[in-house]
Amino acid sequence: MVMLGTDMKVAETPQDGLKDFKKRDAYEEWLEAEGVKVYEEFYFPNMMKVELGPWERKGGKGAVIHIANRHMPNDCHVVEIAPAGKSQPEHHMYELTVYILSGRGATTIWQHDAKGNGNGKAKNTFEWQAGSLFSIPLNASYQNFNGSGTEPVRYMAVTNAPPMMRLYQDNDFIFGCDYAFTSRYQGDEDYFSGNGKLYTRRIWESNFIFNAPDMKLYGWKERGAGGINAMLEMASNNTKNHISEFPIGTYKKAHRHGPGAHLLLLSGTAGFSLVWTKEDRSDMIKCDWQVGSMVVVPSDNCTHQHFNSGTTRARYLAFRPGDMGAYSPRGGGGEFADRSQKEGGWQIEYTDEDREIHEIFEKELKQNGATCRMKAFIPWCTGEVGPTSERET
Q1: What is the value of pTM for the model shown?
Q2: What is the sign of the dihedral through the CA atoms of 363, 365, 371 and 374?
Q3: Is 152 within 8 Å of 100 (Cβ atoms)?
Q4: Domain span at 41
Q5: Per-residue pLDDT tens for 205-246?
Q6: Contact at 8 Å (CB) between 272 and 329?
Q7: 164 and 218 share one domain
């Protein structure tokens, strides 16, 4: 022992006995235990073509899209339920929002006790189809069913499982907690009816959207070029979603925010996103769109911009991390994502963007036989004047 003064002692440790401390990662442990196929990419040209592996608990096949970033607040589960198949009943202490990519079927949902049994409330069942969007209330029990005997169902679900598992570090608790969050769900028969309520700033509160590619949207002048939008509040979740659409021959303003937004193209014939982190855009990547393409914002300070270079209006669904209880109609950066960089925000105004951005867009339009309609916003645009207000009908 080494003596320090008269009463303090410090044990000597041989140098070769020192080891680097590594904290266990409960989320990574869960992925390994599930044995599920994992992707760490942030761009998927077509979610219908993502190769899946066995995931019997979910109904047949599946994969997890998980960006290797410990600050990533969510992940994405891609699941295929076999014809006439069903998932095993489950409940969990993380939020989950589902978008049906193909097929039709139904979900049964109920509250449970410690053994997973019903708590006296009748089970509710609602039907869905390709294009439906819904969220399972936190820790409620549920089971998914394929309504076709010949075709598989494929869906994607964005969850906040990574931070929740890392917070509790006890996956038996994540999947075995018997607490019923009755403030979120009490077995109401009309919970998944599709009814909703519109609030200011384009906020639509509803627990079920039967056909997201066709739902009504509202003006979003801050993002520019006649775009329309709806911010979604579903199942009292902290995680959020929104749907945006923009006219032919237009694009949105570049902006940035924290990681975790999963953008899925719902409609449109052509388009792309540009993604970069460096000020000189030397690391810029172009992600081409088609219906079913998905782009994930992979890191902090990742600037991104979305372009409709096709011949029809383009619409996308964005699954976003939440604001942890602090009210923001935007989430993922709040009002900063809509505020100009000159005013301390995270958005690049059209007149402040590099001309190369617009040149890339006009080149894509020409290849697709479409006309640029950004003349009202971009002085050097060689196209025509298109939408000049917050919304084009």
Answers
A1: 0.88
A2: negative
A3: no
A4: 26-176
A5: 999 999 999 999 998 776 667 889 999 999 999 999 999 998
A6: no
A7: no
